TrEMBL record:
Membrane-spanning parts: none
Organism phylogeny: Eukaryota, Fungi, Fungi incertae sedis, Mucoromycota, Glomeromycotina
Catalytic reaction equation(s): (S)-malate + NAD(+) = oxaloacetate + NADH + H(+)
Protein name as catalogued: malate dehydrogenase
Keyword Chaperone: no
Protein origin, superkingdom: Eukaryota
Domain Lactate/malate dehydrogenase N-terminal: 24-168
């Protein structure tokens, strides 16, 4: 991973001036958590970031002090809510990554997290809209299907909404899809590049396995689709009450942030999946949808359509749309209630 990332970083640095590369602040909100800490460690090693700003209601400064002993150039600062910590953490940030909030325990759905996490994300988005209205927002906190609409509605309220700058991070779904397909077929993950669309929970996660180069039997298709849709549950179950995916998620989020940074610095042709304001299913009343998105100098560029779907994938899509619509409405209503 690091070899690839370093290469990507080098490409971006060659293409753009090092002075531009030297002025990039990335803030992580929820930085002392299970995702936040390994994500901060990986971002500390990203040479495209000049200032890593870490905020958490507990231990933000502790995590920052620890990372600041690493012999890699760049500033690291840490904050708690004291002394306007959130404001200082996000002011001038190019990207704000939000993994703040509670994770699932066995038996819970992501939507069960709504009551706690919606308020956390709303408050962080309120601060971002005030102090960092130009930042690109990368939302990890679940339920992503609803938290992205929450952030968007808050930005609309503050009249600083730009849909090109608000992303739900769904990278883990394609990371898992690649891994699970390679395990099933005994191939390299490098061969298994799978498009995953829809949203980020259960049936709203739609892998488009007909578009890959590998062939699957009907039974394999069903088993693999189910594993990709419910991969998060495997980790929740294995962690047995102590949380959900953190390490694979921090890997996925670091990949997304690195791709976005490269694109913001002007590199072209960078495509990542993301849950964004999308025209794809607007006619069916869905404002947001995850699909492959070309990232560009100001955020969301071309939103790729789904391509050809087989009958099975059409059924998956039919099952996903009503659930996604409900999740979106819940987020929107929460802000306006
Ligand atoms: P965690 O409990 O380990 O960490 C969350 C951190 O958020 C804690 O350090 C906590 O102090 C902090 N926090 C709580 N309220 C805060 C606030 N108001 N401001 C700043 N920080 C605050 O949880 P985790 O395992 O890191 O997961 C975090 C979230 O990410 C969960 O909602 C989880 O469901 C979600 N998640 C999403 C994906 C995805 O693919 N998008 C993957 C894994 C986890
Ligand atoms: C995941 O996909 O691992 C995350 O959304 C966390 C979870 O609750 O499963």
């Amino acid at each position: 991973m690091f070899a690839v990332r370093r290469l990507n970083v080098e490409t971006a640095k060659r293409a753009f001036s090092s002075s531009a590369a030297n002025a990039t602040k990335v803030a992580v909100l929820g930085a002392a958590g299970g995702i936040g800490q390994p994500l901060a460690l990986t971002l500390k090693q990203n040479e495209l970031i000049s200032h890593l700003s870490l905020y958490d209601i507990v231990n933000g400064p502790g995590v920052a002090a620890d990372l600041d002993h690493i012999d890699i150039d760049g500033k690291v600062t840490g904050y708690t809510p004291d002394n306007d910590g959130l404001k200082h953490a996000i002011t001038d940030a190019t990207i704000i990554v939000i993994p703040a909030g509670v994770p699932r325990k066995p038996g819970m759905t992501r939507d069960d997290l709504f009551n706690t996490n919606a308020g956390i994300v709303r408050d962080l988005a309120n601060a971002a809209a005030q102090y960092a209205p130009k930042a690109h927002m990368a939302i990890i906190s679940n339920p992503v299907n609803s938290t992205v609409p929450i952030v968007s509605e808050i930005f609309k309220k503050h009249k600083v909404y730009d849909p090109k700058r608000i992303f739900g991070v769904t990278t883990l779904d394609v990371v898992r899809a690649s891994r699970f397909a390679s395990q099933m077929k005994g191939t390299s993950t490098k061969k298994e590049k799978i498009t995953v669309v829809g949203g980020h929970s259960g049936v709203t996660i739609i892998p488009l396995l007909s578009q890959t180069s590998s062939n699957f039997t009907d039974d394999e298709l069903k088993a693999l689709t189910h594993r990709i849709q419910f991969g998060g549950d495997e980790v929740v179950k294995a962690k047995a009450g102590s949380g959900s995916a953190t390490l694979s998620m921090s890997y996925a989020a670091a990949r997304f942030v690195n791709s976005l940074l490269r694109a913001l610095k002007g590199e072209s042709g960078i495509i990542e999946p993301a849950y964004v304001r999308s025209p794809l299913f607007e006619s069916k009343g869905l404002e947001y949808f995850a699909s492959n998105v070309e990232l560009c100098h100001d955020g969301v560029g071309k939103i790729h359509d789904l391509g050809p779907l087989n009958q099975y994938e059409k059924q998956l899509l039919e099952a996903a749309l009503p659930e996604l619509k409900k999740n979106i409405a819940k987020g929107v209503d929460f802000v306006h209630k």
